[in-house]
Amino acid sequence: MRLRKIPNAMEILKEHSDYVILDGKNNKGKWHSFFCNLNPIHLEIGMGKGQFITTMAKNHPDINFIGVEVVDSIMVKAIRKYKKEEKLANLIFMLVDAKELENVFEKGEISQIYLNFSDPWPKKRHEKRRLTHHSFLQIFKNILKEEGEIHFKTDNEKLFEYSLVSMSQFGMFFNFISLDLHKSDFQGNVMTEYEERFSQTGQRIFRVEAKFK
What we know:
The chain starts with 8 loop residues before the first helix and ends with a strand. It is globular, with a radius of gyration of 17 Å. The protein has helices at about 10-15, 30-35, 50-60, 70-80, 135-145, 155-170, 195-200; strands spanning about 20, 40-45, 65-70, 90-95, 110-115, 145-155, 170-180, 205-210. By secondary structure, the protein is an alpha/beta fold. The chain has one domain: Rossmann fold, CATH 3.40.50.150. It has an eight-stranded mixed β-sheet with strand order 1-4-3-2-5-6-8-7, sandwiched between helices. It is about 30% helix and about 25% strand. The longest helix is centred in the last third of the chain and has 13 residues, at about 155-170.
């Protein structure tokens, strides 16, 4: 389904500069100062309407969360939803392409990365656009702490299989793998809007927690 572009999306985002970052390059290496604490920083790449990252920030006030989105119209939808809630000191949103993350974060500045229901880009010619392609894994490795993890969820079995192979070939190892998350004994799963829609249909959700060696 084609995304409906929101007119004046950038202007709308600029009106919320207290919690929306349009250019994070000036904060590279200074994010702990930005949040005014030394708490871990967790990053969701492709936050959609923001339900996951907002819930995580509410549940974990001792962690700083940054929700990243590349499409301004999608971020506007997240902002409109977030405006109805009490603002959280440990949560901000940032408009940036994942390819540019090394220009925004210093080496080892991020403690954890979430990839939730990323675009599968199923055609072979689009493989390099998948967020679990080795080119993105290299970026993630560079901004993560040595003990940092990537938590990846998807309903796309082929993307999950591809991701496991890609991560393994990149030299990562897995702390947790589920082939049917909602039927597993995993505790503390926070659902995205997309995931909620399928939670009652029995559709399988795949999840992996991975670390770099």
